[in-house]
Amino acid sequence: MPVHVLIAINVSKWFLKAVNKIRRSYLWKGRKEANGGCCLVAWDKVQRPLDLGGLGIPDLQVMGWALQIRWLWLRKTDTNKPWIGFDIPVHPNAVAMFEIAMQSLVGNGNNTFFWKDR
User: Fold this and answer.
1) Domain-by-domain residue ranges, the chain?
2) Which domain of life is it from (predicted)?
3) Cα–Cα distance list, 21 to 14, 29, 44, 62 (Å)
4) Using one digit for the tens of pLDDT, what is the confidence trace for 75-84?
5) Which of helix, strand or coil describes residue 93?
6) Radius of gyration (Cα) for the chain, nearest Å?
7) Closest CA relative to residue 43, chosen from 11, 66, 21
8) How many CB atoms lie within 10 A of CB 17?
9) How many CB atoms lie within 10 A of CB 74?
10) What count of Cα atoms within 13 Å lies in the side-chain half-sphere of residue 73?
């Protein structure tokens, strides 16, 4: 459920901390709450991909940015969708990553913004 929320809104740090606390507790104890010495590995290491020694549990903040970048991509490339006109708030980091990664060809100029696109 938090994944769908991450697409539509910029969640605050306290929300991410609360969800991560529940995820950590479930992983280490199988309950909603776990205290101190139950955690065997640092949460940053647990969130690493499998090939880097982690458990592959996604970082919700980074995943939210990735989903928002996807939203920006669809808004830019597929303008026929009925939800294109929705004003979804996008985190500034997601906008910066999108602008760095995006490259436009001028073509007929319909989908290229002269002052914003590379």
Assistant:
1) 2-101
2) Eukaryota
3) 10, 12, 13, 17
4) 877 778 777 7
5) helix
6) 18
7) 21
8) 10
9) 13
10) 14
